Records
---
Amino acid sequence: MFRFTLVLLLSALLAVPARAQEEVRDASPHSDAQLVGELLSVQPGEPFEVGLSMTMEPNWHSYWINPGDAGMPTEVQWRLPEGIEVGPIQWPFPERIDQPPLASYGYSDDVLLPMQVRLPAEFSEPSVTLEGKAVWLICADICLPAEQEVSLTIPVNSAHPELNPEWSAVFEATRNAYPHGIEGWEAKAIATDTGFRLELINTRGGFVDVSEAFFFADRKAVLHHAEDQEFIEVRDGHTVELVSSEFATETPSRLTGALVLPEGQTWDGTHRAMAVDVPVESVAYGSGAASTASISFFAALLFAFIGGLILNLMPCVFPILSIKILGFAQGRDHSRAVLRNHGLMFGLGVIVSFLLLAGVLLALRAGGQQLGWGFQLQSPWLIGGLALLMFALGLMLIGVFQIGFGLASATGKLDTKQGLGGAFWSGVLATVVATPCTAPFMGTALGWALGQPAASALLVFTLLGLGMATPYVLLSLFPQWIQRLPKPGQWMESLKQALAFPLFATTVWLVWVFGHQTGINGAAYLLLALTFFGMGAWILGRWGLPTNSPRQRGTARAAVVVALILAIISTGVGVGQTAQARTTPSADSEWRNFDPAEIDRLVAAGQPVFVDFTAAWCLSCQANKAVALNASSVRDAFHDKGVVRFRADWTQRDPVITSALEGFGRSGVPLYVLYPPNGEPILLPEILRPGIVTDALSQLPTAVAIDARP
């Protein structure tokens, strides 16, 4: 509202003659304009250029075709002889003029605004006079209307026209300042919840620093003019999030304007401004998002709750929740109140964790970050920390060491007040380890949520957490169900120790993920950190017991601190290792690296394409690969149907893959997309079986001979 008020006030200023108190008004204050020609003489029927040359005093400016938040573009009101045609102004790229909280687009110092003129072929006069009135707005801290009568007389003859030595170089430099189509660069515009995503693809190779470029939309009420633009480098190009104008009433069908590099840089050695004129796509890579965009608010809540329930059955959650069930079994003889309180605290830990993750995710996305569900697992620091935590829980269950609070409570300690904290933190831990998995219904709900206002999104995440916590809350509210479990005995100690091995397996998997993110050297440093951590746990369990002397306990604790410090340092060194480069698959590889441009080319040519959106930290993805995608029947079906397969690896942050996921209304992996020839993309379920994939492939025609070169 404040911005709108400023614009109204500025418009009111324009309607009142400035400096009315002056007895003699300068028609063109702080500026001057004249009409100039590129040629000394012209020919009938042949086009030529004239230009409005404007000179402005320091700190004053005029405006571009889109003036920005305030102002008006320069124009010439012609009075021409009959039959003479003058085209529109050809606008060189502008500069951004910041006047917080507003921003304008215009010119300072000097500018030439060329126009093309054509005389009739039968024009027989010895000269032609072009006359008109130039009208513009000249602004600094205040804005003043300006106008000036302009005219230009040029000889007309049939001889070869000569360049005007005074102005020809200026015309040439101005033409170089027009936005041009740049060979080797392609652009794509995608509508988003906040505006547009402009994607630039560099097909010519070489490096161009686009970090400080700025996109000038050439129409008003399209973009928020004062918003900063941050270009992010991605594979083969860059992407930038553009914020819509608050006065926009609809999404335009095309995004047009000039993408300008800073002074001293060019796209091709000559031009600083790239012309952008591309259709605005409603979704990326087909219309697969329709399935989520069309669901209702209540359907999203229902999907979130069901997805949360199913999440308990996913492999990533089992190691922690099995420990929780063991805790219920150990506490079967406690009062109903104790069981109820622990179940509710566990549920509270789950829900609070989901809300915290959602809040961080929404805040980072609002700040322009390209993130989705599981974003925290793209951080090697978190993966390394989880590996140490899973390893610690395993060592604790197997009896290497024991501590009285925190991790020990997470194993199901129900008999003290500390156990309530343990129940809460076990809910937090269960949520953290659940994020590598996406259950059925869950992906649709989350994809819908991240496209909604924050309140609606947080409610969806709340229902997701409630669904995950419900089985354990019900178990605590109805303890008679617990009575059906076997009575505590020696078997329970054996079971507790056996549950350590799923945690050790989880640790192995996390080291593998860490290696994908940081390379083989990084994985080695994390293994070293686990060694230090294990040594510290052994020292604590061997010499830190109450039965040891105070001196032994003190020495043991100091040694444990040193071991923990060494473990943290080793993890940090591992995080700092260079990640393994993604290599381009060989010509006979079954899977290619994700390449949106190549996918578009193949689909346009009628080639069936399958895309696997995956991540090393996504356990559901790895299970689907082992069970379905690598099954011989599925591989044969891919081959028989001539399907080209792409793998979009989201293990590390990748804005292009995030954009593609959002285009299908999803916020995380796994996602499986089948592009049939001349049809809409088909989204497969999050959990695959060989039959699901082969049934989808059976709908494709027989293989065709299409150029599918990698």
---
Amino acid sequence: MAELSKVKSDLIAEIEKRVEDHVLEPSNAELLTKLISQADNDNEAISIAALGTTYKRTGLHFDKRLERLTHDIRYFRKNDKLSFHTDNSKPTHKLIIGDNYEALQNLLVQYTGAIGVIYIDPPYGKDSMGEFAQTNYQNAITRDNLLSMLYPRLQLAKQLLSDSGVIFCSIDDKNQAYVKCLFDEVFGESNFIANICREAIKGGTKTKNIKQVHDYIIVFAKNIAANENGILSGEEFSENYSYDYLDEKGFFAKGRELNKWGASSRREDSPSMWFPIKGPEGDVYPIRNDGSEGRWRWGREKLLKAVDENEVIFEKREDGTYVAYEKIRDNKIKNKQLISFLKDCFLNAKGSEDLKEVFNTLMSPFDYAKPVNLISYLIESFPEEDAIILDFFAGSGTTGHAVLDLNKDGGNRTFILCQMNEKTDTTPNGIAYDVTAKRLKRIMTGECYDGTKDFEWIKKNKPYGGNLDVYEIDKVADFEYTEGKSPFDVIDETLYGQPRFATLQEKIDWVCSHFGNARKQLD
């Protein structure tokens, strides 16, 4: 091997020093050293070394975990014991148990560009992040693991968001500046919407300096230019419509279309949302602009009631089909705009009370759970009443609870939750089994998996109903060809919204086309 130049030797020495200082991961340093040694010239070596030092757009320094291809394909396997269906006319929600990085890779097979809202509450405390992502506020790698853990997950989440989608991220005071920079890096600073300050606790414990009683919710759009139907104030909402219509109740505006457009707008995307309503000349079905069969935004009960109460207006196309619109009156226009400071209404104590009622316990079975009304408040600002809501740090399942509660307005929102099954002293079977799944089962069906109904929540509330499919992450070697055990045998296409394939070749083509990402693993 040729002798290294002085520049290359110095760069490698600097990388070794960064490993000693716990600023750079040894595995990443090994790869950088190899690349620098093989660089064609010193300028190229300097550029390579920069990969281990900074992100150029924000100047944010952290050690990014690298992806590598493995021979194992991760895929969804349905857990029939935890899954349940109560009413197939209602939405089917999903709980995915396992590493959320692998869950997000699999969700891309079906949901690329289809998620309307993402809410995450990542583990950012020094004692709550697990062995891989422990944060130590006293040393040089304070946030490397947190940021490194979030970075690839946010990249996948961005691909899942619809063009008009939004993402909310709860974060504490110590980390919010760094995580905000990370979001700037991934989503672009121009897509920043707000940094909401939330009063999290009342009073707090005495400290040497200042009592900290708040945290933050960072809000970004996927593409703020496409977010015209996003978080609107009452005034902006009014200005979007002209009051040109008059009926026996007075003037009204022709509001947004009740025909669903864009992602997931075909009939086959949601068969239960294809049904007739009474129009000016007989039955009206949701027909897309291209003439194909579509779907409604609202569920059957809500939409038929609106038609009966003369709250729907119809416009005839040139081809004879109709578009339906919601009638909106002045007294119905609500200010849905979020504000940047939340006080009194969304305290963490309410989150603990929510859980204690569901589990009939004196102590909450999950620490630091956010209150249901907070997540409802955030999701409700997004106007799509049939949006898909994703939370890939699901914890106790508060986001799922919030979606179910919001759907009492006749909405058809669905949730996808991802949660690792970490075992603790209070959750011997794992958080996903002992808390997340049990919470959803109780509030959706009115009873736990063992049939018991002795919990406080059911005395005050009616079960939400609906359906839950529970998946776990499994793996299969890409070189496994044993009959019945190959990837083409064990991967179930119906779990990805795909009809059964008629031929093996179709199945092989589909697996090869869609599961390349599911072979990537974080070093």
